[in-house]
């Protein structure tokens, strides 16, 4: 098993005919993901190396039975594309696009919560990889193999760093989920940890957070109340000065809430061990799994 | 992106929010001309992106032309908490009967705009929220429904405003919400929102006496008139240079230059360097898929900070290719000829090719490291050595 993406995934890619969309959709297909359709308005009837292109997500769903959408359109069109996918009945929308205006994300999130059964991962995320089964997004799959560690992270490259440290110690992953660093992520740590908790393949969960917001603190409460599997944490941004934005729109420190120290302490208070470096995080995970 | 007070007020005025009349001025002559036009008494206000102007002497009431000239000349060029005053705003003096507080923030936790209102304005609102939380009324607005008249009435009545200004307060809050949404702001704040003293002919009214506006940088492409309001004179030299080159750069206090790909990994790199006993000079995220020319640009920005004694490159390539990073570093050495040592850690996509390129180029004073921790330790050692030698 794995979470969110796997052998049942039938993927439609919005923005398939764009340079990045084509490159990553074909990479995902090569990995084994079932890429069934692409959407680019006005390009119906064309194909990208055999992947049929449709004008709308609705027609792609009707013709191909797509159940997952990957959003690869530029930021100014991305909110519309996500809303279209939700409206077409897509169960899982994975939004890779970076730089979506915050008010657009707010409208998308509000509509998402009114759409029963729908889930959004991202935006501004590297996607989801279930090693050996499916890759939806831009995670460099060659560094990861199948295994029992579930990883959920706000940062793409930091996910690779931690995943790689685990791989060097012989551990693979059930799934790696990048939830993105934007102010209004479609899925929270809690949403993904809940999935890992009920996934039989996952034996340990690594959550990698960073400064800003309160998602890590909320996850700490949730873990204490609902999670039986061991969780290991990592938080980036201990040296970030207050009031500065460190790239991710979400990583804004206001007061003492949302600092790396406050987050690490919140997790530790609930019994979650927190590594001070990516290396230490992988070492803690190894220690728990080898015990 | 933060706006200066007067830029915020002009933005408010576009949405029908009552603000005192005023004019910006960059020289004493302009300030005096503006004051003459507006009439006396008027207020001379320093325009800087930092709070605490009043206490620093950056806000003065001028009763006549001589005072306007004196205050403008005192305030222009003044340093307020590290920010130089390049502009003043000359504004008609207001008749203040009461001071309220109003703001709308983009509440990430609740994932909705949060409207806050209080009759205890004109002072430190954080202290009000702390000491008398009931005095700060808060209402979340459904982003798909928008601000309704009842929201305004609830805020006004629950905060206990005088009955005669319930309607104008509600109307102002509705317009503030319009501005927040239409301009795609992350924050609009009015402190104080004043009630003017009524006259025999007319009743009392409300007016925004201050304006704090933060706009969403990701939405500026839809608001070209706002994009033009950026205040580069309020930015650090390196930050300005990085902005022009499309790099995400934040200046820090230390002496170790940092470059990485991905905000999370760069933040983590800063932490690991600090744990190794070093002090990072900057945060620089070269972004995903960086090509060689972006790396050259980044090296130029990092080295333009004279404090930098050593530089760490920490790359884990996903869509970023390590061979492109190596090529960029080689080009940068050719162009910039750095005199400080570099430590480079390359992992991920095309890492073998990238390391080979660096080995073949044999750049002077470039060290490689195989892990993030090793790289951090090495760069801290080199920066300390450079410090001792200097």
CATH fourth-tier homologous superfamily of the largest domain in chain A = Succinyl-CoA synthetase domains
Instruction: Summarize model confidence as the mean pLDDT of chain B.
Output: 91
Chain pair sharing the greatest interface = A-B, 57 and 51 residues
Rg of chain A, alpha carbons: 18 Å
Helix percent band of chain B? 25-40%
Instruction: Sketch the major β-sheet of chain A.
Output: 7 strands, mixed
Strands of chain B, count: 18
Summing up helix and strand content along with how strands pair, one would put the structural category of chain B as alpha+beta
Number of domains of chain B: 3
Q: So, CATH architecture of the largest domain in chain B? A: 3-Layer(aba) Sandwich
Cα distance, first to last residue of chain B? Answer: 39 Å
Give the low-pLDDT segments of chain A.
Answer: 248-255
| H-E order of chain A | EHEEEHEHEHEEEEHEHEHEHEH
Individual helix count of chain A: 9
Stretches with pLDDT under 50, minimum 5 residues of chain B: none
């Amino acid at each position: 098993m794995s979470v969110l993406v796997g052998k049942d995934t039938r993927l439609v890619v919005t923005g398939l005919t764009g340079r990045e969309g084509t490159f990553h959709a074909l990479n995902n297909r090569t990995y084994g993901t079932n890429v069934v359709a692409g959407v680019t308005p006005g390009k119906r009837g064309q194909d990208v190396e055999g992947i049929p292109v449709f004008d709308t997500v609705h027609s792609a769903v009707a013709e191909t039975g797509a159940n997952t959408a990957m959003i690869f359109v530029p930021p100014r069109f991305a909110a519309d594309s996500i809303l279209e996918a939700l409206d077409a009945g897509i169960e899982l929308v994975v939004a890779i696009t970076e730089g979506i205006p915050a008010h657009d994300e707010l409208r998308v999130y509000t509509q998402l919560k009114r759409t029963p059964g729908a889930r959004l991962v991202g935006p501004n995320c590297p996607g989801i990889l279930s090693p050996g089964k499916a890759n939806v997004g831009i995670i460099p799959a060659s560094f990861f193999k199948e295994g029992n560690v579930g990883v959920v992270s706000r940062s793409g490259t930091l996910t690779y760093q931690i995943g790689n440290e685990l791989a060097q110690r012989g551990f693979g992953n059930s799934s790696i989920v990048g939830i993105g660093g934007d102010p209004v992520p479609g899925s929270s740590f809690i949403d993904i940890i809940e999935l890992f908790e009920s996934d039989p393949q996952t034996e340990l969960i690594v959550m990698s957070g960073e400064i800003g917001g309160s998602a890590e603190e909320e996850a700490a409460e949730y873990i204490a109340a609902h999670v039986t599997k061991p969780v290991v944490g990592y938080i980036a941004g201990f040296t970030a000065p207050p009031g500065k934005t460190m790239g991710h729109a979400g990583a804004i420190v206001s007061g003492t809430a949302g600092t790396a120290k406050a987050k690490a302490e919140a997790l530790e208070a609930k019994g979650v061990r927190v590594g001070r470096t990516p290396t230490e995080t992988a070492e803690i995970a190894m220690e728990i799994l080898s015990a | 992106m933060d706006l200066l007070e007067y830029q915020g007020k002009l933005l408010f005025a576009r949405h029908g929010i009552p603000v005192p009349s005023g004019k910006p001025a960059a020289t004493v002559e302009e300030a005096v001309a503006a004051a003459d036009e507006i009439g006396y008494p008027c207020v001379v206000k320093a325009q800087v992106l930092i709070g605490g102007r009043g206490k620093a002497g950056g806000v003065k009431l001028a009763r006549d032309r001589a005072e306007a000239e004196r205050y403008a000349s005192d305030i222009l060029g003044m340093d307020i908490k590290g920010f130089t005053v390049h502009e003043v705003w000359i504004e008609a003096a207001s008749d203040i009967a009461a001071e309220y507080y109003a703001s709308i923030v983009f509440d990430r936790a609740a994932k909705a705009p949060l409207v806050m209102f209080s009759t205890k304005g004109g002072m430190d609102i954080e202290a009000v929220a702390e000491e008398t939380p009931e005095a700060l009324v808060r209402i979340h607005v459904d982003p798909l429904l928008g601000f309704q008249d009842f929201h305004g009435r609830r805020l006004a009545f629950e905060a206990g405003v005088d009955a005669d200004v319930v309607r104008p307060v509600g109307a102002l809050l509705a317009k503030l919400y319009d501005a927040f949404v239409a301009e795609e702001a992350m924050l609009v704040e009015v402190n104080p929102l004043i009630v003017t003293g009524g006259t025999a002919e007319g009743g009392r009214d409300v007016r925004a006496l201050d304006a704090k506006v933060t706009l969403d940088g990701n939405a500026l492409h839809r608001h070209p008139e706002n994009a033009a309001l950026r205040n580069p004179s309020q930015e650090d030299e390196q930050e300005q240079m990085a902005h022009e080159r499309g790099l995400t750069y934040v200046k820090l206090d230390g002496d170790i230059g940092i470059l990485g790909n991905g905000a999370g990994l760069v933040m983590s790199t800063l932490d690991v360097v600090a744990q190794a006993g070093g002090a990072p000079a900057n945060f620089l995220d070269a972004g995903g898929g960086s090509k060689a020319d972006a790396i050259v640009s980044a090296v130029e920005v990092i080295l333009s900070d004279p404090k930098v004694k050593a530089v760490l490159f920490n790359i884990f390539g996903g869509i970023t290719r390590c061979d492109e990073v190596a090529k960029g570093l080689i080009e940068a050495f050719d162009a910039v000829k750095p005199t400080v040592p570099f430590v480079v850690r390359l992992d991920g996509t095309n890492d073998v090719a990238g390391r080979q390129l660096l080995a073949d180029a044999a750049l002077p004073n470039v060290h490689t490291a195989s892990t993030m921790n090793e790289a951090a330790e090495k760069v801290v050692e080199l920066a300390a050595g450079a410090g001792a030698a200097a």
